Amino acid sequence: WEAAGYLPFTRARIGSFFQENPVLKNPFLEDALLRGYLKRHLPQEGIFSDLSAFGEHVAKEVDGWGRECEVNPPRLVHFDPWGRRVDHIVTSLAWKRMKDLSAQEGLVAIGYERSFGEWSRVYQMSKLYLFSPSSGLYTCPLAMTDGAAKVIQSIGVSQPVEEAYSRLTTRQPERFWTSGQWMTERQGGSDVGNGTETVAVPQTDGSYKLHGFKWFTSATDADMTLTLARVQDQTGATIPGSKGLSLFYAEVSRDEDGRLRGIEVQRLKDKLGTRQMPTAELLLDGLPAHRLSVEGRGVASIANMLTITRIHNSISAAAAMRRVLQLARDYASRRTAFGKLLKDHPLHMQTLARMEVESRGAFLLVMDVCRLLGREESGVATEHDAHLLRLLTPVVKLYTGKQAVAVVSEGLESFGGQGYIEDTGLPGILRDAQVLSIWEGTTNVLSLDVLRCVARSSGMVLHAYFDQSLLAGASSVSALAPAVKTVVDALSELEEFVQIAATRAPSYLELAARDLAYSLARIYTGALLIDHACWKGASPSDTYAALRWCEQDLCPVAQNQRKGHYDSNTSLDAALIFDQSVQ
Ligand code: UCC
Ligand code: FAD
Fold first, then answer.
1. Percentage of residues in the chain with pLDDT exceeding 90?
2. What's the short name of a Pfam family annotated to this entry (predicted)?
């Protein structure tokens, strides 16, 4: 062998084995659940052919642009060569292509054209679901753009935002605008009411100039933004807290010298993930703006934007899980260990199956919220639908955000060491998943929103929630009986919790908030999986997924209540965390 020159690993020889890489195939054709869901609810040939063609484009070309956005991240040029301040955010060609593609494919427009009536949002979000993991985070500006269009539409499309609305919702790339959502300041991103220092100084023509500092502004290359500020009275005084906040519309434009009007870009954030997209700190130094809300109704008026961006966030979370699974199962058919392909190792398949169950649950939960949104926007929502949409929006955002991190992390491990290697593109999926539970409301803050929304509606939302119509079809399917029983039992545990909690102090409920939100997510998702498995076109895998989902503790809030975890743990928790004593 040596004489014949066959000895491997000598001199320049690096061995003859090279692992085949996982291949991204058409994400629409690869997704049985998505296709099944659409076949069930929206069996339009036009939609199937559009999603199939788009999926092919995503796999063959767009995914490469997404990688380019990651490899060639945005940078900030503060000064031109002659020392003039320009604050130019330089983005890659791929990022610009994403903008054109988004307009052409109607990724925002579909939601406003409403060509498919109450199912238009499901169609739009299905498309975004295919796009998201390959989009180089362009789904972030699209989410905010969609949210801004929704706010404008709900306030009334008139001057000065008529033109903006038409640009946000157009399919023409040369007219298409994206929007920012500038809410967070240094003192607070969750507690916006107390954290906002930005003031709005009234101008004689009825417009305003904004002065303040926005601490996180994503996709800062946007054409416009919605933001919050406090209107100054003639003495310069403002009203503190949430009641002092109003909603403003501002365009991001440049003067004759090329300087941003009323904005200085302080710096770009150096982030764990989402590096494809610029996130800046902005000094607002007299930014021209128009007030869109009644004075003091800023938070309530931007709430529509929060609803939309939180749904987009959940779509991205479900899509990240789906993408890592598609790649992992492809890899399992290419990688051999201990003499057989990974797909022939039952323990590896069990690991992927657990991820699959989470991913299916997330998909059905978020699609159901999109369905409800579509019903509300088409004017066909019942009171029950409206309550459910309000309740489930924070629930789906907080639950899928957490699932995405866990599933994607497990997914990376399924590639072994290669899952940790940057130029495979895999680590970026995990980095980008981590933000999904932070921005647009953290898990705890959204859990408290769930609580408030229950309290504000005098329990109406929970009555809506307890409606068990989703389980109606399941009585005839005996294979699903164990899952149905678990969901019904969990629902009565939840009802019992609610009855007990109603008699307790607010601090009790606050401690239960996260577990309550998780319980709502798990029980409702269980019911959705069962409902989908009852559909006549469902597969045995749909039944198996429902059974597996329902094997987990569906109602952790009842468990922890029984353990007394919400009674008096506050001081014990603090003592545990800050423990300094050594015996
Ligand atoms: O993070 C951001 C952008 C990231 C980039 C975009 C990513 C998009 C996804 C991409 C996927 C790849 S922008 C920053 C986002 N910031 C947040 O989400 C803030 C989190 N904090 C909260 O949500 C808090 O709960 C606050 C700010 C809403 C709490 O403020 P207040 O002032 O204490 O609010 P209140 O008192 O709870 O509510 C004031 C009013 C009430 O109405 P009225 O006065 O009529 O009773 C509420 O019912 O606002 C109403 N309201 C809502 N209505 C509050 N929240 C909502 C809601 N979610 N839906 C409907
Ligand atoms: P804090 O509010 O300080 O929260 C810290 C911790 O305290 C969290 O764990 C939180 O859950 C917890 N906490 C807070 N209040 C409570 C409570 N009452 N009870 C229990 N726990 C609580 N913002 C924008 O406005 N526009 C943007 O474009 C934007 N882009 C972003 C991009 C990135 C990459 C990131 C990371 C953030 C971005 N943000 C943006 C900001 C984001 O919305 C906030 O960071 C987020 O809302 C949390 O606010 P905070 O950072 O002030 O955290």
1. 85
2. Acyl-CoA_dh_M
473: pLDDT strictly greater than 90? no
The type of residue at 147 is: G
Residues 311 and 428 in one domain: yes
Check whether 466 has a pLDDT greater than 80: no
Q: Is the CB of 190 under 6 A from ligand 2?
A: yes
Q: Give one DSSP letter per residue of 279-312, joined into a string.
A: EEEEEEEEEEEEE-SPTT-HHHHHHHHHHHHHHH
Domain membership of residue 149 (yes or no) is: no
Q: Which residues pair with 492 in a beta bridge?
A: none
Task: Give the structural domain span for 423.
Answer: 32-71+105-134+300-437
Structure tokens given for 355: 């991820």
pLDDT in tens, 376-386: 999 999 988 99
What length does the chain have? 583
Q: Could you tell me the two tokens for 461?
A: 């939302």
Residues 454 and 387 sit within 8 Å (Cβ to Cβ): no
pLDDT digits (tens, 9 = 90+) for 17-64: 999 999 999 999 999 999 999 999 998 889 999 999 999 999 999 999
**CATH number of the domain that residue 208 is part of:** 2.40.110.20
Average pLDDT over the chain reads 94
Nearest alpha carbon, ligand 2 atom 48: 189
Looking at 269, 297, 325, the residue that finishes a domain is 297
Mutate to test the pocket of ligand 1, among 184, 245, 306 (most ligand atoms within 8 A of CB): 306
Is residue 486 lining ligand 2, measured as CB closer than 6 Å?
no
- Ligand 1 is surrounded, with C-beta below 6 A, by 139-140, 143-144, 181, 183-184, 189-190, 192-193, 218, 242, 299-300, 303, 306-307, 309, 312-313, 316, 439-441, 445, 449, 452
Using the mean position of ligand 1's atoms as its centre, give its distance from the Cα of residue 299 in Å: 6
Give yes or no: residues 393 and 306 share one domain.
yes
Pair 243, 228: CB distance under 8 Å: no
CA–centroid distance, 445 to ligand 2, in Å, is 9
Q: How far apart are CA 115 and CA 128, in angstroms?
A: 17
The model's pLDDT over 336-374, given as tens digits with 9 standing for 90+, comes to 999 999 999 999 999 999 999 999 999 999 999 999 999
Which CATH number covers residue 424?
1.20.140.10
Query: Are 377 and 494 contained in the same domain?
Result: no
491 found inside a domain = yes
In a domain, 98, yes or no: no
Q: What is the pLDDT of residues 134-166, one digit of tens each?
A: 999 999 999 999 999 999 999 997 888 999 999
Pair 48, 60 in one domain: yes
Going by pLDDT thresholds of 50, 70 and 90, the confidence category of residue 458 is low
pLDDT tens-place string over residues 305-317: 999 999 999 999 9
| Both structure tokens of 120 | 């238009």
Number of folded domains in the chain? 3
Nearest to 407 by CA among 374, 426, 430, 386: 430
**Judgement on whether residues 244 and 232 belong to the same structural domain of the protein:** yes
Q: What is the three-state SS of 42-60?
A: CCCHHHHHHHHHHHHHHHH
This model of the complex carries an ipTM of 0.99
